[in-house]
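ingest -> validate -> predict -> emit
validate: passed (alphabet ok, no gaps, 153 aa)
predict: started
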Amino acid sequence: MLTEFGKALIFIIIGLVFVAVGLLVAKILRPHNPTAEKTMPYECGEDPIGPQWMRFNIRFYVVALIFILFDVELVLLFPWALIYERLGMYAYVAGAIFIVILFLADFYLWAKGDLEWIRPQANIPRLDSLIDRIPLRSKPGVSAPTTPSTKNE
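emit:
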């Protein structure tokens, strides 16, 4: 007589054998004719340009995280939409607060510029440009530098 652990072990072994047989049958049946074009790296239909190990813009990850957050939050709204009538005013207020928080988060991301794919570059003033705009002040007792006059004296 098998114990519960024995039954689980047999189930795991059958699962591993099923996967191994599936992979073996697929390897036997599939055609194997690699070409130079088939062995090239594939980048979403685009021709690969530059080295494979290059830095990606962080915008890809930020947009993906924002999408996942809003997607999960919208998935939470579906069960609420189905049963909020049975739960009464409490569920309606809770759902309304949740939706308001979603809109506030959306406006925050929009104001911060995270929804823009290409952010405008920040105009950071450089010290050189600030110094050029400041008029020279002379110290007491020291004459200020004079500019050459255009008049003939």
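Residues 14-117 form a domain with the Methane Monooxygenase Hydroxylase; Chain G, domain 1 fold (CATH 1.20.58.1610).
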